Amino acid sequence: MNLLVTGGAGFAGSNFIRHILKKYPNYTIVNLDKLTYAGNLDNLRDIEGNSNYKFIKGDIADKRIVFKVCRNFRIEAVINYAAETHVDRSILDPDAFVKTDVLGTFNILEAVKEFKLKKFVQISTDEVYGSITKGKFTEESPFLPNSPYSASKASADLLCRAYLKTYNLPIIVTHSCNFYGPYQYPEKLMPLFITNLLEGKKVPLYGDGKNVREWIYVLDHCWAIDFLLHKGALGEVYNIGTGTEKKNLEITEIILKSLNKDKKMVEHIVDRPGHDLRYAVDWTKLKKMGWNPEYDFDRAIRETVRWYQQNEWWWKKLKSGAYLEYYKKQYRL
Ligand code: NAD
Ligand code: TYD
Asked: Which of 5, 32, 205, 259 is deepest in the core (most CB within 10 A)?
């Protein structure tokens, strides 16, 4: 199968490409990535010489390049990982979120229609459902996004729905809980906290730290997308979850303990505007099809901490970016 993976130089996309190339040696993958601050070819260093893999630098918001890639590489299926993904950045500067997440997805849908592709898997988030105090979001829950990031992802998902209903395209939309693991840009909770502590810096915990997220190890997410690419029913929406819910405070304590650091290293700072209290998804639909997460949370988070400890070469240069200086000023860090 000839696959187009968009955003494959990012955290989850690069893990997915590695997973597919290893498991399906007869598949070819084209990785179309704009290489924003979050796109990093270091994530794919070990496979860049693989003859079944090709990298193309390009923007999914540019319809011509999306069409050209689909045509030239005889693409059969697309997995859309490309997105602006960080909630805090979407609060400070939402423009790119609308361009990439909404217009970019629209261009891919147009390509699916034009080139009669066999499958399109849209990688989306549980954040489109908004925040939930009790219970879990099902695939039928309404979209109530609260940040420019989640609103742009929800808009893209609605376009997917419309293209499915109007043009009967072979689309699958996935809403996953939070990923963690190797190669995650050190601005998200886990890699930021781990790398700050490794540098002897404090960790900035928003508000009271009682916000809850559901967590999936990135390789389990790869496995879920692989499963849906091959076994998912066309036109369906799937939640991807694990049932592992943790308060940010709990995550912080685990990381502190793994690195033998004191609670004094935690700095409670001003809360994120519109900060969702809790996300939790009901993923019974996927479970009933035979998918289950394979990684144990306690073990995988310790392994994640160890990966950042052992791979300073990967994250050290990413933490000196200009954006972080701006961000630190914004939040008086
Ligand atoms: P990431 O920020 O690490 O990577 C995003 C990638 O997309 C980067 O390589 C970047 O260069 C690329 N990109 C950005 N704009 C582009 C454009 N216009 N054209 C082409 N490429 C572009 O993201 P991630 O954390 O790996 O998330 C991947 C996907 O999974 C996203 O769609 C995100 O919404 C979704 N998701 C993420 C999480 C999570 O916890 N990280 C949870 C649920 C869903
Ligand atoms: P994040 O990794 O940004 O993912 P998302 O907001 O998409 O779930 O944040 C996870 C949680 O951690 C969220 O409740 C916000 C919180 N958080 C902090 O407390 N401090 C931080 O510096 C960051 C980046 C996040």
From this structure: 32
